[in-house]
């Protein structure tokens, strides 16, 4: 029986691979290695991989709707990012009083707003919050009390947003209003101990959530009413995030981490995987409106 996954071949493995992003403009998948301060681009046209070095921890990048370049979440805040040539310009540090915090995971809604969480980089204090960066570059804190924020994703109609507190093994669901405001936070899913910890997420075109399992060696698909639909096992214990890619959004890529592992034993840890999602397609990523 053929495996449901393949490794995207490259020499290095990610210490903490995260933030996969499909770019139709570049026909490429972007992702980051947070702790090694790298941004990667994998070309779907020819399989080539390009790497850029960042000055500090980088949690994610998202594309802009009407301007070139990206918005990036770094240790010290939200930045405008250009790649050719490489340039970073600070937009705002949402937490100047918490220099040990960093931005960790983000998605863009249909209003062009970025929803991004922060966390204590040392994973000791419960100082993480959820923020909204609006197209006018204003930032609003909308929730707090997280040790590790992760995996924002939206329902297809964008009437709900899902957000994770990873150490608590809990995924929350918020109502998302037509005006792009959150309310009515509820516990949507709590992982049992044997599944590991919920990490990054994405939503497919049928409205099912795909969740990466940190410490669980798999990804899983869940119905909108939080029923487990399927699991796909992967040969690495720390699976971190998921993105549908390609012009038809029918190619799934999954990031992983080698942090804290014996790499002589966990030889696939830190790999970028392409996974057979069984014919399921994804939703296009949002573009930042500023």
TrEMBL record:
Gene3D superfamilies for this protein: TolB, C-terminal domain
Protein name as it appears in the record: Calcium-binding protein
Necessary cofactors: Zn(2+)
Listed GO MF terms: calcium ion binding; gluconolactonase activity
Residues forming the catalytic site: 199 (proton donor/acceptor)
Family: Belongs to the SMP-30/CGR1 family.
Keywords: Metal-binding, Zinc
BP-aspect Gene Ontology terms: L-ascorbic acid biosynthetic process
Keyword Zinc carried by entry: yes
Binding, substrate: 102, 104
SUPFAM superfamilies, per the entry: Calcium-dependent phosphotriesterase
